[in-house]
Protein backbone atom coordinates (compact mmCIF):
# COMPACT_ATOMS: atom_id res chain seq x y z
CA UNK A 1 0.00 0.00 0.00
CA UNK A 2 1.50 3.38 -1.03
CA UNK A 3 2.06 6.08 1.66
CA UNK A 4 -0.72 8.36 0.38
CA UNK A 5 -3.30 5.55 0.60
CA UNK A 6 -2.11 4.72 4.14
CA UNK A 7 -2.51 8.37 5.16
CA UNK A 8 -6.04 8.54 3.75
CA UNK A 9 -7.06 5.38 5.65
CA UNK A 10 -5.63 6.74 8.92
CA UNK A 11 -7.51 10.04 8.48
CA UNK A 12 -10.72 8.12 7.76
CA UNK A 13 -10.25 6.04 10.93
CA UNK A 14 -9.65 9.16 13.07
CA UNK A 15 -12.79 10.80 11.64
CA UNK A 16 -14.96 7.75 12.42
CA UNK A 17 -13.56 7.48 15.97
CA UNK A 18 -14.18 11.19 16.66
CA UNK A 19 -17.74 10.83 15.36
CA UNK A 20 -18.33 7.81 17.64
CA UNK A 21 -16.88 9.72 20.60
CA UNK A 22 -19.21 12.65 20.00
CA UNK A 23 -22.32 10.44 19.81
CA UNK A 24 -21.40 8.42 22.91
CA UNK A 25 -20.61 11.56 24.88
CA UNK A 26 -23.91 13.15 23.91
CA UNK A 27 -25.78 10.03 25.07
CA UNK A 28 -24.13 10.20 28.47
CA UNK A 29 -24.67 13.88 29.16
CA UNK A 30 -26.33 14.51 32.49
CA UNK A 31 -28.86 17.22 33.33
CA UNK A 32 -26.11 19.67 34.21
CA UNK A 33 -23.31 20.69 31.86
CA UNK A 34 -19.84 19.34 32.47
CA UNK A 35 -17.68 22.43 32.42
CA UNK A 36 -14.32 21.61 33.90
CA UNK A 37 -11.67 19.06 33.03
CA UNK A 38 -11.70 17.74 36.62
CA UNK A 39 -15.39 16.85 36.27
CA UNK A 40 -14.69 15.13 32.97
CA UNK A 41 -12.00 13.04 34.61
CA UNK A 42 -14.51 11.74 37.16
CA UNK A 43 -17.29 11.12 34.62
CA UNK A 44 -17.91 7.61 33.20
CA UNK A 45 -15.89 7.30 29.95
CA UNK A 46 -17.83 6.64 26.74
CA UNK A 47 -17.91 2.97 25.66
CA UNK A 48 -14.82 1.79 23.77
CA UNK A 49 -13.35 5.29 23.77
CA UNK A 50 -10.08 5.90 25.66
CA UNK A 51 -10.64 8.49 28.38
CA UNK A 52 -7.93 10.88 27.13
CA UNK A 53 -9.76 11.28 23.82
CA UNK A 54 -12.88 12.72 25.49
CA UNK A 55 -12.10 16.33 26.32
CA UNK A 56 -14.72 18.82 27.41
CA UNK A 57 -13.58 22.18 28.73
CA UNK A 58 -15.18 25.45 29.69
CA UNK A 59 -16.04 27.35 26.51
CA UNK A 60 -13.78 30.33 26.02
CA UNK A 61 -14.13 33.35 23.83
CA UNK A 62 -11.64 33.03 20.99
CA UNK A 63 -10.71 36.41 19.55
CA UNK A 64 -11.26 36.69 15.81
CA UNK A 65 -8.09 35.95 13.92
CA UNK A 66 -7.08 38.54 11.37
CA UNK A 67 -5.55 37.21 8.17
CA UNK A 68 -2.12 38.36 7.05
CA UNK A 69 -3.77 40.52 4.40
CA UNK A 70 -6.17 42.03 6.97
CA UNK A 71 -3.25 42.94 9.21
CA UNK A 72 -1.31 44.43 6.33
CA UNK A 73 -4.40 46.43 5.38
CA UNK A 74 -4.76 47.70 8.96
CA UNK A 75 -1.11 48.75 8.96
CA UNK A 76 -1.55 50.61 5.68
CA UNK A 77 -4.79 52.37 6.64
CA UNK A 78 -3.68 53.39 10.12
CA UNK A 79 -0.24 54.48 8.92
CA UNK A 80 -1.89 56.67 6.28
CA UNK A 81 -3.91 58.38 9.04
CA UNK A 82 -0.79 58.92 11.12
CA UNK A 83 1.33 60.18 8.24
CA UNK A 84 -1.41 62.51 7.02
CA UNK A 85 -1.71 64.04 10.50
CA UNK A 86 2.06 64.43 10.80
CA UNK A 87 2.23 66.29 7.50
CA UNK A 88 -0.80 68.48 8.17
CA UNK A 89 0.45 69.41 11.66
CA UNK A 90 3.94 70.15 10.40
CA UNK A 91 5.46 67.42 12.57
CA UNK A 92 8.72 65.80 11.52
CA UNK A 93 8.36 62.39 9.88
CA UNK A 94 9.57 59.46 12.04
CA UNK A 95 13.12 58.46 11.19
CA UNK A 96 16.19 56.75 12.61
CA UNK A 97 18.35 59.71 11.58
CA UNK A 98 20.23 61.49 14.32
CA UNK A 99 18.51 64.86 13.96
CA UNK A 100 14.86 63.82 14.31
CA UNK A 101 12.78 64.74 17.40
CA UNK A 102 13.45 62.12 20.06
CA UNK A 103 9.82 61.74 21.14
CA UNK A 104 6.52 61.61 19.30
CA UNK A 105 4.44 64.79 19.50
CA UNK A 106 1.28 64.80 21.59
CA UNK A 107 -1.41 63.31 19.37
CA UNK A 108 -5.19 63.74 19.34
CA UNK A 109 -7.04 60.65 20.55
CA UNK A 110 -7.97 59.33 17.11
CA UNK A 111 -4.40 59.58 15.82
CA UNK A 112 -3.02 58.13 19.03
CA UNK A 113 -5.22 55.08 18.49
CA UNK A 114 -4.04 54.85 14.89
CA UNK A 115 -0.45 54.78 16.12
CA UNK A 116 -1.27 52.06 18.66
CA UNK A 117 -3.01 50.03 15.95
CA UNK A 118 0.08 50.25 13.75
CA UNK A 119 2.27 48.97 16.59
CA UNK A 120 -0.14 46.15 17.46
CA UNK A 121 -0.79 44.97 13.91
CA UNK A 122 2.88 45.17 12.94
CA UNK A 123 3.89 43.07 15.94
CA UNK A 124 1.11 40.55 15.28
CA UNK A 125 1.99 40.25 11.60
CA UNK A 126 5.67 39.85 12.41
CA UNK A 127 4.96 37.15 14.98
CA UNK A 128 2.68 35.26 12.59
CA UNK A 129 5.15 35.18 9.72
CA UNK A 130 8.00 34.29 12.09
CA UNK A 131 6.06 31.34 13.52
CA UNK A 132 5.75 30.13 17.14
CA UNK A 133 8.86 27.96 17.20
CA UNK A 134 11.28 30.57 15.91
CA UNK A 135 9.60 33.31 17.95
CA UNK A 136 10.17 31.40 21.20
CA UNK A 137 13.72 30.47 20.25
CA UNK A 138 14.86 34.02 19.60
CA UNK A 139 12.78 35.60 22.34
CA UNK A 140 14.81 33.61 24.86
CA UNK A 141 18.08 34.19 23.00
CA UNK A 142 17.67 37.96 22.82
CA UNK A 143 17.21 38.47 26.56
CA UNK A 144 20.83 37.78 27.49
CA UNK A 145 22.39 39.37 24.41
CA UNK A 146 20.43 42.60 24.75
CA UNK A 147 21.35 42.76 28.45
CA UNK A 148 25.04 42.39 27.58
CA UNK A 149 25.01 44.88 24.73
CA UNK A 150 23.02 47.55 26.57
CA UNK A 151 25.09 47.01 29.69
CA UNK A 152 28.25 47.56 27.68
CA UNK A 153 26.88 50.70 26.07
CA UNK A 154 25.93 52.32 29.39
CA UNK A 155 28.98 51.04 31.32
CA UNK A 156 31.39 52.59 28.82
CA UNK A 157 29.27 55.72 28.43
CA UNK A 158 29.68 54.95 24.75
CA UNK A 159 26.90 57.11 23.31
CA UNK A 160 28.16 60.23 25.06
CA UNK A 161 30.08 62.92 23.26
CA UNK A 162 33.11 61.69 25.21
CA UNK A 163 33.45 58.89 22.65
CA UNK A 164 32.61 61.06 19.64
CA UNK A 165 30.34 64.09 19.04
CA UNK A 166 26.76 63.59 17.87
CA UNK A 167 27.28 64.94 14.35
CA UNK A 168 30.72 63.46 13.80
CA UNK A 169 32.03 60.00 12.98
CA UNK A 170 34.74 57.92 14.60
CA UNK A 171 36.66 54.76 13.83
CA UNK A 172 36.36 51.71 16.03
CA UNK A 173 40.04 52.16 16.91
CA UNK A 174 39.45 55.74 18.09
CA UNK A 175 36.46 54.71 20.18
CA UNK A 176 38.36 51.78 21.71
CA UNK A 177 41.15 54.10 22.79
CA UNK A 178 38.75 56.58 24.37
CA UNK A 179 36.77 54.01 26.36
CA UNK A 180 39.83 51.96 27.32
CA UNK A 181 38.84 48.63 25.75
CA UNK A 182 40.26 46.56 22.94
CA UNK A 183 38.99 47.27 19.44
CA UNK A 184 37.77 43.72 18.77
CA UNK A 185 35.28 43.75 21.62
CA UNK A 186 34.20 47.32 20.92
CA UNK A 187 33.28 46.20 17.38
CA UNK A 188 31.35 43.18 18.73
CA UNK A 189 29.25 45.13 21.18
CA UNK A 190 28.63 48.11 18.95
CA UNK A 191 27.52 45.93 16.05
CA UNK A 192 25.09 44.16 18.32
CA UNK A 193 23.76 47.55 19.46
CA UNK A 194 23.26 48.37 15.77
CA UNK A 195 20.77 45.50 15.50
CA UNK A 196 18.60 47.72 17.73
CA UNK A 197 19.43 50.80 15.64
CA UNK A 198 21.80 52.21 18.25
CA UNK A 199 24.69 53.62 16.13
CA UNK A 200 25.26 52.85 12.46
CA UNK A 201 28.24 51.98 10.33
CA UNK A 202 29.35 54.43 7.68
CA UNK A 203 31.79 51.79 6.44
CA UNK A 204 33.32 48.69 8.10
CA UNK A 205 35.71 50.86 10.15
CA UNK A 206 33.71 54.02 10.83
CA UNK A 207 30.70 54.61 13.10
CA UNK A 208 28.09 57.39 13.31
CA UNK A 209 25.26 58.23 15.70
CA UNK A 210 21.56 57.48 15.19
CA UNK A 211 18.49 58.88 16.88
CA UNK A 212 18.62 56.07 19.46
CA UNK A 213 22.28 56.62 20.36
CA UNK A 214 21.56 60.34 20.58
CA UNK A 215 18.85 59.60 23.18
CA UNK A 216 21.44 57.83 25.33
CA UNK A 217 23.95 60.62 24.75
CA UNK A 218 21.64 63.49 25.67
CA UNK A 219 19.08 62.01 28.09
CA UNK A 220 20.82 61.25 31.37
CA UNK A 221 17.64 59.86 32.93
CA UNK A 222 17.26 57.38 30.06
CA UNK A 223 20.86 56.30 30.59
CA UNK A 224 19.99 55.70 34.24
CA UNK A 225 16.92 53.72 33.17
CA UNK A 226 19.02 51.44 30.94
CA UNK A 227 21.70 51.03 33.61
CA UNK A 228 19.13 50.25 36.32
CA UNK A 229 17.54 47.66 34.04
CA UNK A 230 20.74 45.92 32.99
CA UNK A 231 22.70 46.11 36.23
CA UNK A 232 19.95 45.79 38.87
CA UNK A 233 16.80 44.27 37.40
CA UNK A 234 18.25 41.65 35.02
CA UNK A 235 20.57 39.98 37.60
CA UNK A 236 17.69 39.96 40.11
CA UNK A 237 15.31 38.50 37.52
CA UNK A 238 17.62 35.52 37.02
CA UNK A 239 17.19 34.68 40.73
CA UNK A 240 13.41 35.07 41.07
CA UNK A 241 12.55 31.39 40.64
CA UNK A 242 15.14 30.25 43.19
CA UNK A 243 13.89 32.94 45.61
CA UNK A 244 10.29 31.80 45.13
CA UNK A 245 11.30 28.19 45.61
CA UNK A 246 12.94 29.01 48.94
CA UNK A 247 10.27 31.51 50.07
CA UNK A 248 6.99 30.63 48.30
CA UNK A 249 4.86 33.25 50.07
CA UNK A 250 6.80 36.04 48.31
CA UNK A 251 5.65 38.53 50.93
CA UNK A 252 8.90 39.69 52.54
CA UNK A 253 10.95 42.47 50.88
CA UNK A 254 14.15 40.81 52.13
CA UNK A 255 13.51 37.54 50.27
CA UNK A 256 13.11 38.60 46.64
CA UNK A 257 15.23 37.87 43.60
CA UNK A 258 17.09 41.12 44.24
CA UNK A 259 18.36 39.85 47.58
CA UNK A 260 19.36 36.50 46.08
CA UNK A 261 21.39 38.32 43.43
CA UNK A 262 23.00 40.73 45.92
CA UNK A 263 23.70 38.35 48.81
CA UNK A 264 21.30 40.18 51.14
CA UNK A 265 18.55 37.61 51.69
CA UNK A 266 16.94 38.08 55.11
CA UNK A 267 19.27 41.03 55.70
CA UNK A 268 17.82 44.13 54.05
CA UNK A 269 15.32 45.28 51.39
CA UNK A 270 16.42 46.86 48.11
CA UNK A 271 15.97 50.47 49.22
CA UNK A 272 18.34 49.94 52.16
CA UNK A 273 20.94 48.38 49.84
CA UNK A 274 20.69 51.38 47.52
CA UNK A 275 20.88 53.75 50.49
CA UNK A 276 24.37 52.42 51.16
CA UNK A 277 25.50 52.97 47.57
CA UNK A 278 25.06 56.60 46.41
CA UNK A 279 25.76 55.78 42.75
CA UNK A 280 23.13 53.04 42.58
CA UNK A 281 20.66 55.21 44.48
CA UNK A 282 21.24 58.12 42.11
CA UNK A 283 20.85 55.86 39.10
CA UNK A 284 17.57 54.44 40.38
CA UNK A 285 16.31 57.97 41.04
CA UNK A 286 17.14 58.93 37.46
CA UNK A 287 15.48 55.77 36.17
CA UNK A 288 12.26 56.59 38.00
CA UNK A 289 12.39 60.14 36.62
CA UNK A 290 12.65 58.66 33.13
CA UNK A 291 9.73 56.28 33.71
CA UNK A 292 7.35 58.79 35.26
CA UNK A 293 8.11 61.29 32.51
CA UNK A 294 7.12 58.79 29.83
CA UNK A 295 3.90 58.46 27.85
CA UNK A 296 0.84 57.57 29.92
CA UNK A 297 2.30 58.73 33.25
CA UNK A 298 1.96 62.51 32.90
CA UNK A 299 0.61 64.40 35.91
CA UNK A 300 -1.96 65.99 33.59
CA UNK A 301 -3.85 62.67 33.64
CA UNK A 302 -4.06 62.73 37.43
CA UNK A 303 -5.59 66.19 37.29
CA UNK A 304 -8.36 64.82 35.06
CA UNK A 305 -8.87 61.57 36.94
CA UNK A 306 -10.49 62.78 40.15
CA UNK A 307 -12.93 65.41 41.38
CA UNK A 308 -10.30 67.74 42.80
CA UNK A 309 -12.68 70.68 42.25
CA UNK A 310 -15.00 69.39 44.97
CA UNK A 311 -12.10 69.16 47.41
CA UNK A 312 -11.05 72.65 46.38
CA UNK A 313 -14.51 74.00 47.23
CA UNK A 314 -14.18 72.59 50.74
CA UNK A 315 -10.63 73.96 51.25
CA UNK A 316 -9.41 70.39 51.77
CA UNK A 317 -6.09 69.32 53.23
CA UNK A 318 -4.20 66.59 51.38
CA UNK A 319 -1.35 64.57 52.88
CA UNK A 320 0.99 63.20 50.20
CA UNK A 321 2.76 60.19 51.75
CA UNK A 322 6.06 59.23 50.16
CA UNK A 323 5.60 62.39 48.12
CA UNK A 324 9.32 63.07 47.54
CA UNK A 325 9.75 66.77 46.73
CA UNK A 326 6.03 67.35 46.24
CA UNK A 327 5.82 67.64 42.45
CA UNK A 328 2.26 66.22 42.50
CA UNK A 329 1.17 68.71 45.15
CA UNK A 330 2.74 71.59 43.24
CA UNK A 331 0.80 70.63 40.10
CA UNK A 332 -2.47 70.37 42.05
CA UNK A 333 -1.82 73.62 43.90
CA UNK A 334 -1.36 75.54 40.67
CA UNK A 335 -4.80 74.43 39.46
CA UNK A 336 -6.74 74.49 42.76
CA UNK A 337 -5.95 77.56 44.88
CA UNK A 338 -7.90 76.50 47.99
CA UNK A 339 -6.19 73.15 48.56
CA UNK A 340 -3.52 72.78 51.24
CA UNK A 341 -0.84 70.08 51.24
CA UNK A 342 1.54 68.29 53.56
CA UNK A 343 4.27 66.36 51.75
CA UNK A 344 5.70 63.52 53.83
CA UNK A 345 8.85 61.52 53.16
CA UNK A 346 11.97 60.32 54.95
CA UNK A 347 14.21 62.97 56.51
CA UNK A 348 16.95 62.71 53.89
CA UNK A 349 14.44 63.39 51.11
CA UNK A 350 12.77 66.25 52.95
CA UNK A 351 16.17 67.87 53.60
CA UNK A 352 16.87 67.97 49.87
CA UNK A 353 13.48 69.41 48.86
CA UNK A 354 13.62 72.74 47.01
CA UNK A 355 12.57 75.91 48.80
CA UNK A 356 9.19 77.02 47.53
CA UNK A 357 8.18 80.59 46.85
CA UNK A 358 4.85 82.22 47.57
CA UNK A 359 2.02 81.63 47.01
CA UNK A 360 2.92 77.90 47.08
CA UNK A 361 5.14 78.09 50.16
CA UNK A 362 2.24 78.87 52.51
CA UNK A 363 0.10 76.06 51.09
CA UNK A 364 2.66 73.22 50.76
CA UNK A 365 4.48 72.08 53.89
CA UNK A 366 7.10 69.35 54.20
CA UNK A 367 7.24 66.84 57.04
CA UNK A 368 9.52 63.92 57.86
CA UNK A 369 7.49 60.73 58.28
CA UNK A 370 7.78 56.96 57.78
CA UNK A 371 4.40 55.73 56.52
CA UNK A 372 4.75 52.47 58.45
CA UNK A 373 4.48 54.44 61.68
CA UNK A 374 1.43 56.21 63.14
CA UNK A 375 0.25 59.09 60.96
CA UNK A 376 0.81 62.38 62.82
CA UNK A 377 -1.52 64.59 60.74
CA UNK A 378 -5.08 64.34 62.02
CA UNK A 379 -8.25 65.57 60.31
CA UNK A 380 -6.86 65.65 56.77
CA UNK A 381 -9.43 65.11 54.04
CA UNK A 382 -7.26 62.95 51.79
CA UNK A 383 -4.24 60.69 52.39
CA UNK A 384 -2.62 60.32 48.98
CA UNK A 385 -0.13 57.69 47.75
CA UNK A 386 1.47 57.73 44.28
CA UNK A 387 3.81 54.90 43.25
CA UNK A 388 3.77 53.55 46.83
CA UNK A 389 1.43 50.59 47.23
CA UNK A 390 2.85 48.65 44.30
CA UNK A 391 6.14 48.56 46.21
CA UNK A 392 4.62 46.42 48.97
CA UNK A 393 3.04 43.00 49.41
CA UNK A 394 -0.43 42.83 50.96
CA UNK A 395 1.06 42.22 54.39
CA UNK A 396 2.87 45.56 54.36
CA UNK A 397 0.23 47.43 52.36
CA UNK A 398 -2.25 46.61 55.13
CA UNK A 399 0.26 47.88 57.68
CA UNK A 400 0.40 51.22 55.85
CA UNK A 401 -3.38 51.50 56.00
CA UNK A 402 -3.51 50.59 59.69
CA UNK A 403 -0.95 53.31 60.44
CA UNK A 404 -3.41 55.90 59.10
CA UNK A 405 -6.33 54.94 61.32
CA UNK A 406 -5.42 56.90 64.49
CA UNK A 407 -5.38 60.12 62.39
CA UNK A 408 -8.46 59.63 60.21
CA UNK A 409 -11.74 61.42 60.73
CA UNK A 410 -14.92 59.74 59.55
CA UNK A 411 -15.33 60.32 55.80
CA UNK A 412 -11.64 60.94 55.12
CA UNK A 413 -10.35 59.29 51.97
CA UNK A 414 -7.37 57.27 50.88
CA UNK A 415 -6.37 57.80 47.24
CA UNK A 416 -3.84 55.50 45.58
CA UNK A 417 -2.34 56.47 42.22
CA UNK A 418 -0.83 53.30 40.78
CA UNK A 419 -1.27 50.79 38.01
CA UNK A 420 -4.46 48.74 38.29
CA UNK A 421 -4.38 45.44 36.47
CA UNK A 422 -7.38 44.41 34.41
CA UNK A 423 -9.06 41.13 35.34
CA UNK A 424 -8.05 38.70 32.65
CA UNK A 425 -5.78 39.29 29.69
CA UNK A 426 -6.19 41.35 26.54
CA UNK A 427 -8.31 44.20 27.89
CA UNK A 428 -5.48 46.69 27.48
CA UNK A 429 -3.90 47.78 24.24
CA UNK A 430 -1.14 45.33 23.38
CA UNK A 431 1.40 48.04 24.11
CA UNK A 432 0.05 48.80 27.58
CA UNK A 433 -0.57 45.15 28.45
CA UNK A 434 3.11 44.38 27.92
CA UNK A 435 4.28 47.36 29.96
CA UNK A 436 1.95 46.80 32.92
CA UNK A 437 2.48 43.03 33.10
CA UNK A 438 6.24 43.58 32.99
CA UNK A 439 5.97 46.14 35.77
CA UNK A 440 4.11 43.56 37.87
CA UNK A 441 6.98 41.07 37.49
CA UNK A 442 9.58 43.76 38.20
CA UNK A 443 7.84 44.48 41.51
CA UNK A 444 8.06 40.78 42.34
CA UNK A 445 11.70 40.68 41.29
CA UNK A 446 12.91 43.63 43.32
CA UNK A 447 10.58 43.83 46.31
CA UNK A 448 8.31 40.76 46.49
CA UNK A 449 5.57 43.29 45.81
CA UNK A 450 2.76 43.41 43.29
CA UNK A 451 0.60 45.45 40.97
CA UNK A 452 -3.05 44.84 41.88
CA UNK A 453 -6.36 44.44 40.11
CA UNK A 454 -9.50 46.22 41.26
CA UNK A 455 -10.60 43.05 43.04
CA UNK A 456 -7.26 42.78 44.83
CA UNK A 457 -7.50 46.40 45.99
CA UNK A 458 -11.02 45.79 47.25
CA UNK A 459 -9.83 42.72 49.14
CA UNK A 460 -6.93 44.73 50.62
CA UNK A 461 -9.24 47.41 52.02
CA UNK A 462 -11.69 44.82 53.30
CA UNK A 463 -8.83 43.24 55.25
CA UNK A 464 -8.47 46.40 57.35
CA UNK A 465 -11.60 47.04 59.42
CA UNK A 466 -13.22 50.44 58.95
CA UNK A 467 -12.43 51.12 55.31
CA UNK A 468 -15.04 51.13 52.54
CA UNK A 469 -13.74 50.52 49.04
CA UNK A 470 -14.83 53.24 46.61
CA UNK A 471 -13.70 51.83 43.29
CA UNK A 472 -11.14 52.62 40.61
CA UNK A 473 -11.00 55.41 38.03
CA UNK A 474 -8.82 55.63 34.95
CA UNK A 475 -8.95 58.12 32.11
CA UNK A 476 -8.33 57.30 28.46
CA UNK A 477 -4.66 57.31 27.56
CA UNK A 478 -3.36 56.99 31.12
CA UNK A 479 -1.59 53.87 32.39
CA UNK A 480 -2.27 54.71 36.03
CA UNK A 481 -5.52 54.57 37.97
CA UNK A 482 -6.88 56.34 41.03
CA UNK A 483 -8.06 53.88 43.67
CA UNK A 484 -10.35 55.29 46.35
CA UNK A 485 -11.42 54.16 49.81
CA UNK A 486 -13.35 55.98 52.53
CA UNK A 487 -12.85 55.73 56.28
CA UNK A 488 -16.24 54.70 57.69
CA UNK A 489 -15.06 54.02 61.22
CA UNK A 490 -15.09 56.35 64.19
CA UNK A 491 -13.00 59.51 64.24
CA UNK A 492 -9.35 58.59 64.82
CA UNK A 493 -10.23 54.92 64.74
CA UNK A 494 -11.88 54.65 68.16
CA UNK A 495 -11.48 51.13 69.49
CA UNK A 496 -9.99 49.96 66.18
CA UNK A 497 -7.08 52.37 66.61
CA UNK A 498 -6.31 50.85 70.01
CA UNK A 499 -6.09 47.42 68.43
CA UNK A 500 -3.76 48.56 65.65
CA UNK A 501 -1.37 50.46 67.92
Automatic annotation (TrEMBL):
Gene Ontology BP, a term: methylation
Residue ranges with Polar residues bias: 32-45
Record keyword Membrane present: no
Keyword Transferase: yes
Region (Disordered): 21-45
Record domain O-methyltransferase C-terminal: where: 300-467
Top-level lineage group: Eukaryota
InterPro entries: COMT-like, COMT_C, SAM-dependent_MTases_sf, WH-like_DNA-bd_sf, WH_DNA-bd_sf
Keywords from the named record: Methyltransferase, S-adenosyl-L-methionine, Transferase
Classification via Pfam families: Methyltransf_2
SUPFAM superfamilies, A to Z: S-adenosyl-L-methionine-dependent methyltransferases, Winged helix' DNA-binding domain
GO molecular function: O-methyltransferase activity
Protein name per its UniProtKB record: O-methyltransferase C-terminal domain-containing protein
Protein's organism: Hymenoscyphus albidus
Lineage: Eukaryota, Fungi, Dikarya, Ascomycota, Pezizomycotina
Amino acid sequence: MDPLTKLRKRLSLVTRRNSTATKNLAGKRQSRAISTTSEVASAQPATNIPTQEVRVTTPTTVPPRASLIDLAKTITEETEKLERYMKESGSAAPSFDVDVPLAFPNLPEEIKKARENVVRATKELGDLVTGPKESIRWMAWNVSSIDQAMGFVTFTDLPSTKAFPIHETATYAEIAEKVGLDEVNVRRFMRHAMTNRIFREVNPDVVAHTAASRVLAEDDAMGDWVGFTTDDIFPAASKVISALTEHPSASEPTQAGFQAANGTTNIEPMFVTFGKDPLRAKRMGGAMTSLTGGEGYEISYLLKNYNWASLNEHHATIVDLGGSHGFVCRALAEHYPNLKFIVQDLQKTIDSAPKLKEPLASRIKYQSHDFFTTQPVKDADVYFFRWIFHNHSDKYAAKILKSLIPAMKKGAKVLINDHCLRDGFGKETFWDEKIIRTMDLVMLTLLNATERSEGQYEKLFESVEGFRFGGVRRVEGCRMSVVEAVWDGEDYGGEIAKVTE
